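Is this the right way to post structure tokens for a design question? Let me know if I should format differently. Anyway, here goes:
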């Protein structure tokens, strides 16, 4: 995967040993799941393929109508291609919210001023850290996988209960 800010400049962290994408079928729900690293922020994003036409809508409407409980709410709804070239309708979330640590974003802002000087971004983060107001956390693969499986369980329940209502 190509990143606008080279991964080698992101500094030390788990993002160097994690895969940039992984796909699986959730064993509990049978739902297809995926985790993809955002090329711009470096943050991981989680997705679940949906089958119910009632969920094939804009993510804003999904958040307003269905209230899935997942990290940062649903921030994506649309087509997602698999490595086999298959596509489907997926909903998902990203881990680039306050106080999430997005390694490529930090590297970008750190490079804006260039050289070894500290960026305004780094100084602001340090100040907020010392004040106890901002404690950035990198949402690693294990965390995101747990959130994806949590979302898969909620989507499966939605599809099960709405399928039952349609038959009644």
């Amino acid at each position: 995967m190509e990143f606008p800010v080279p991964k080698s400049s992101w500094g030390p962290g788990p993002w160097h040993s994690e895969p940039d994408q992984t796909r699986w079928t959730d064993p509990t729900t049978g739902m297809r799941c995926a985790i993809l690293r955002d090329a711009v922020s470096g943050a991981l994003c989680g997705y679940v393929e949906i089958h119910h036409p009632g969920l094939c809508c804009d993510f804003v409407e999904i958040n307003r109508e269905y209230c899935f409980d997942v990290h940062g709410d649903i921030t994506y709804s649309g087509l997602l291609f698999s490595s086999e070239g298959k596509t489907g309708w997926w909903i998902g979330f990203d881990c680039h919210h306050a106080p999430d640590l997005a390694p490529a974003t930090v590297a970008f802002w750190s490079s804006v001023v260039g050289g070894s000087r500290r960026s305004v971004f780094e100084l602001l983060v340090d100040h907020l850290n010392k004040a106890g107001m901002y404690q950035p956390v990198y949402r690693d693969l294990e965390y995101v996988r747990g959130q994806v499986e949590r979302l898969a369980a909620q989507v499966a329940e939605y599809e099960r209960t709405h399928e039952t209502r349609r038959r009644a």
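Format looks fine. Someone answered above. Worth noting: The mean pLDDT is 85. Strands lie at 21-25, 32-37, 44-49, 76-81, 87-94.
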